[in-house]
Amino acid sequence: TDRDAVHVRDADGVAREVVGSGQSIVTRCIPGVGKLRLRYNIMPVHEEGSTAWKEVKALETLLRERLAQVAPEPEPEPEPEPVASEVGLLLTGGTADHQHEVSLVADDLIRLERG
Q1: What is the pLDDT of residue 69?
Q2: What is the predicted pLDDT for the residue at 82?
Q3: Is the pTM of this model over 0.85?
Q4: Residues whose CB falls within 8 Å of the CB of residue 105, separated by 6 or more in sequence, listed in order
């Protein structure tokens, strides 16, 4: 609200001075500055002590305690060095003279196992 006090009659007809109770749009006169129009509400710069802040801090404490109880993941075991070997496959099917020959070395087999 941005108006100064106004007079309103109560139920008995007596004039009462009242002011708006919402967020001020224009400040009262500041000596040496004057009246200022507030574009945005002035919000507190901290939340410490509010209910939301207390809940966040409680959650932070809970997570720290739970994470302290969790054992760290073990380091993965190093993979064995491939042995230099070769596998040969002869695939046949359909007609007797139709066949495919596939040769795989150890590295190929490891990659196939891993997907």
Answers
A1: 83
A2: 60
A3: no
A4: 84, 85, 86, 87
